[in-house]
Amino acid sequence: MSKKWYNLFVSVDESSQRPEESEATSPTPSAAQTVADIARGVSPIGPPPAFTAPISNPTSFAEIYAAAEIHPPTHGFTIEKVGEMLHSEHIRNLPRDVKKSSILVALEAAGAPIQDVIQDAMKRDQALDTFESVQERALNQLEAQKTKENQDIQAELDRLVGEHKSRMQANSDAIAKEKERFFAWRLKKQEEEQKIADAVSYFVTENPVTAGGHAAPPASAPKPE
Fold first, then answer.
1. What is the rounded average pLDDT for all residues in the chain?
2. Residue 29 vs residues 24, 115, 126, 144: alpha-carbon distances, Å
3. How far is the C-alpha of 145 from the C-alpha of 157, rounded, in Å?
4. pTM of this prediction?
5. Reduced DSSP (H G I as helix, E B as strand, rest coil) percent helix, strand, coil of the chain, to 5
6. Other CB atoms within 10 Å distance of the CB of residue 172
7. Cα 202 vs. chain centroid, distance in angstroms?
8. What SS3 class is residue 55?
9. Cβ(106)–Cβ(141) under 8 Å?
10. CA dihedral 152, 158, 159, 165 (to 10 degrees)
11. What is the CA radius of gyration of the chain?
12. Nearest-CA neighbor of 115 among 152, 145, 159, 73?
């Protein structure tokens, strides 16, 4: 293009300033034709794109478009380019209809059909939707895999907890059994000590035998009566 795209603008109010010309000629399609009307003539873009290269950075839309083999039209006007034009300092503050008409005029003057731009937008949208589906499917697969792993881990934890609880219960049972045996023995021991103390009591003033408690070493040898 020999001229900047913004030098290709024409006044969209020109027809309203010349009512006699408007009355003399019948309306014909112009560069200001609505995009909705033009979009009706855009043919379907076919099946979803096949990504021919791995995408290392999912946040890079340029990488996604490249992997989907979306190439700019030969005239160079993509939907991204049109988006930049719409936000250009030259027209970004103009009314919406004026901005639309200005872009259509520039595209027409550059030999860039608006249908190509719309189709480029549709291809990019389809690539994004397809890549979203790919990521969602991968996410669902990951979720299913990790959920299964968590279930297996929980089952292993439950098994280990059950085994350790059984061991702890066995330990508690062993302690209880040993305590029962020991206290039964202690009772018999106290009975035995009582018999010994009773027999010794006939021969000493201080009975050295403890009945019902732990025996302590005598302070001195027992004195016979």
1. 80
2. 16, 14, 29, 55
3. 18
4. 0.57
5. 60, 0, 40
6. 10
7. 90
8. coil
9. no
10. 170
11. 48
12. 73
Amino acid at 19: P
Residues 220, 225: Cα–Cα separation, whole Å: 15
Residue type at 212 in one-letter notation? G
Q: What is the pLDDT of residues 101-159, one digit of tens each?
A: 999 999 999 898 999 999 999 999 999 999 999 899 999 999 999 999 999 999 999 99
Give CA separation, 165 vs 161, 171, 177, in Å.
Answer: 6, 10, 18
Per-residue pLDDT of the chain (225 residues; tens, 9 = 90+): 445 656 655 444 444 444 444 343 334 444 444 444 554 555 556 777 778 788 888 888 889 998 988 988 889 899 999 999 999 888 889 999 999 999 999 999 989 899 999 999 999 999 999 999 989 999 999 999 999 999 999 999 999 999 999 999 999 999 999 999 999 999 999 999 999 999 999 988 888 888 765 544 444 444 444
Q: How is residue 32 written in tokens?
A: 């200001």
Q: For residue 152, what are its two tokens?
A: 């297996």
Phi first, then psi: give them for residue 224, nearest 5 degrees.
-70, 155
Q: Which two tokens stand for residue 83?
A: 């988006």
> How many angstroms separate the CA atoms of 108 and 117, rounded?
12
Q: How far apart are CA 216 and CA 220, in angstroms?
A: 12
